[in-house]
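LOG
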Amino acid sequence: MKQAPPKLLLAASALLLLSCGKGNEPGFDSKRRSKGIEALQQDPRFKSLPVEEQRRSIAALRQFEEEMPSSEAQDRSDRAELVRTAPPGWRPEKNGRHLKLILNSKTARYRIGERLWYSIELKNIGTEPIQFTEGESFFKNGSEDMFRWKVLIDGREVGRQGLFSFEAPVTEPFNPPGFDRLSNRQKSEYARKFEREHNFRSQRERGLNVALAPGETLHSRPGRFPEAGEKGLTEISSVEGPFRELGPYRFEARGKHTVQIQFRNPGPPQLTEGYYAFMSKRGYSRADVKRMTDEAERHRLPSADSNKIEVEVGD
């Protein structure tokens, strides 16, 4: 069997895990998860992968199943905090998968040197549920890791950085009871597991994975800052209502300015003859390429441009 490039194999594995119950689609539950490995092993696409890639896919799914309870708890918490249900009497604006991005400013007037205080809302205005997933969530902390968001002021993209990200210190003991009696190998294994679990929790807290039913709206998290409490910097408070600062950009020119935010989700490669030939040399038939591309396109989020707001900057 011909070997495909690692990146393509990774993409294939991701699609396999998705279709076999990895949990990125609405309606996922533990019953489906319990059959995940069995379903994965029976999938013809899985059987066509190199043996080593099959092992990696199974290991990834097993790790996912171990971490699922924590993931589900985080997802429920994020949904309760950031998602609002459809109002009574709501009706879809369009058929299919469609998103509407709404931008709000705390005020219409700013001074030279001030930052924009804004909030955004992402509403499912279509007739189908949409799964919204971010590794580094723009809705949570104003930063991202996939270059899907743009902030435009007077039509020009401005630089930005994430909001102040505060991570509470680890409170659980690194050395559990009996740790000193473990062998060096056991200590190393525990340390690796502890680090992996801590990194996973930290990553899940930064990421976002919510299903938006038709009419539901995802709201950006307000600005959050650490406070000095009795136990140190462990408390976080929200300020300025639902708004947050856009950093590091500051208004520099007097007058009226327009602000807009854009969301772009890149699609799969175009199916040109050159691309078919490229994939054919790596063991993929035209049917394989078409199926993988269609599946990636089916899960791709629709793009959205926010409304344009006008602000005035003075002394």
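LOG (cont.) second protein
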Amino acid sequence: MVVRAVIAIISITLLLIYVRPANLIPVIDRLNHDWILASALCIVTSTIIGAFNVYLFISHDNRMSPLSFLGAYWMSWAAGLIVPGQVGDVASLTLLLRRHGLDWPKVAGRAVLDKSISLVVMLAFASFGLTMILGDGEFTEAVVVAVIVFVTSLIVLGVALAMLSPWLTKRKWRILSYISVSLQDMRHLIHAYPVRLAANFVLTFVKIVLIGFAYWCMFTATGLTDVTALLTIALAAVSSIVAYIPISINGIGVAESTGLAVFSAVGATSATTLTVYLALRLVVFALAWIPSFAIIFFTRHPRNQTPRR
């Protein structure tokens, strides 16, 4: 954890030295507040959709209300912003839902299944974007590549689920038995609730589009209007995938470096791209942690609590 925090700090420092803070100031000065608000709205909406996606997987065998689950999901999202990779929000969501009596191996497995679906969709978008900037910009070719990557990723995910569970069942280590339970539950969920699975895929597509659109709104806030929304969504997915790798806390520095590389190919300056990524980080942190602190405060200090005599 400490090492990854150091990596994040060093990465951001090196990026600021490379871009130079003086070059960021003019970009920050011309930021349009209306577009920043639009970006924030996209983030909030995508987070609510993300919460509903996971709720689809856990609501069939528990009585937790959607509002209570949204609060737990929101706090797990906030925790995931300071823990490397995608471990933080899955682990914190598992711990929070365990307090509501949910079986933690099943919760963890269903959260991982949702993450896997998000990764598959992002891989499709990212392959589309990379094909557009590395190839000749042929839209049809990029779509074909995206479909191939999407189908291949689904096959790999399906094969992994089919092969890992029986293999782990034969092992005697306790932690592997928990993982085996999670995998078996994921397989059962896929076979027993195909409609919920399909709904998750559709809503995940919408979620990834909204997250990418938040980037496009922020780029527009800087005055950059030459990059289309579709290409921005696709290229933002590239840096989002990099953030899955637990190199630094929440991919800080690594995602920004990836963003500078891919968006420079479409004409965005380093100062503009770094401003967009840093501004989005600030917006996301505020949107995640301010409500989370409010949830913690009001949960510990309920209004209608009867005073002791």
